[in-house]
Amino acid sequence: MAASYKPLNTADENSDCCSQNGDWHGQPLRRLWLFSSANLVLLVVQLVLLATHLVRNWGNAGSTAAIQATYGFDANYMSIEFEYDWVWEEDAIETAGTIALQRDDKGDVTEFGTISMFHALHCVTSLRRELQKAWEGKHVALNQNEDAHWPHCMHYLHQMIICNADDLIERQHMWNHTIPFVSGAEDVRQCRDAQRLYDMYEEMKL
Fold first, then answer.
1. Which of 2, 99, 156, 192 lies deepest, with the highest CB count within 10 Å?
2. Quick one: DSSP state of residue 87?
3. Phi, then psi, of 125 in degrees rounded to 5
4. Residue 98, number of CB atoms within 10 A of its CB
5. Residue 41: inside a domain, yes or no?
6. CA-based nearest residue to 73, from 192, 190, 173
7. Is 54 domain-assigned?
8. What is the pLDDT along the chain (206 residues), one digit of tens a residue?
9. For residue 117, how many other CB atoms are within 10 A of its CB?
């Protein structure tokens, strides 16, 4: 005797899998839909959290990465004698870190800017040169009315220091084991890696 076909689900009035209108798809599909929707929502939430994490890390890459360092002691930077001019004569410092931000189709610069670290070092160099002039007995401008350069630099450095607001507490040390003083030379600091700015300048300089 040939076997008769028997459907997997039979729509009758007592079937739990059927809807009130006799649609045999009813509740199983509804459960599947709810399950799939819940998983989709969880997936979207995870993707949003992952994207947020990646964006934050990308935005901070290079800018907040810190290295531990101390200022130390270097007499080459502690003199206005002309024989030490060479330590201040880096190209990036001389140009205040001027870089091309945009170029036209011909390669001509249409917009430029300066890298702040090199601008600050340029300003220190400017003040050092004024001290050299004073040492030689030459006239040094008193304010911005006589010279627009170094007075700007003094203000610029003042504002940069306040802007950075370094809150490190520098510890006292003993000079010759007898005199307590604070130099800040040996305190361990969290410093940014300056090399990436040198690399940026070399890649984008005018």
1. 99
2. G
3. -60, -40
4. 19
5. no
6. 173
7. no
8. 444 433 434 344 444 444 444 444 455 555 554 444 444 444 443 443 334 333 333 333 445 568 999 999 999 999 999 999 999 999 999 999 999 999 999 999 999 999 999 999 999 999 999 999 999 999 999 999 999 999 999 999 999 999 999 999 999 988 888 999 999 999 999 999 999 999 999 999 99
9. 19
Angle between helices 150-164 and 116-135 (to 10 degrees): 130
Instruction: Give the number of domains in the chain.
Output: 1
Residue 132 CB: number of other CB atoms within 10 A?
15
Pairing of strands 189-192, 66-69: antiparallel
Q: Is residue 84 part of a domain?
A: yes
3-state secondary structure of 113: strand
Q: How far apart, in whole angstroms, are the C-alpha atoms of residue 98 and residue 92?
A: 8
State the Cα–Cα distance between residues 73 and 185, nearest whole angstrom: 7
Alpha helices in 61-149 (DSSP H): 91-94, 116-135
The two structure tokens encoding residue 168: 């490190």
Q: Which residue, chain included where needed, has tokens 């305190």?
A: 187
CA 15 centroid distance within chain: 65
d(CA 117, CA 201): 11
Phi-psi label, residue 188: left if phi above 0, alpha if psi -120 to 50, beta otherwise = beta
What's the pTM value of the predicted model, to 2 decimals?
0.68
CA dist 132 and 130 (Å) reads: 5
Find where tokens 């003083």 sit.
Answer: 181
CA diameter of the chain: 125
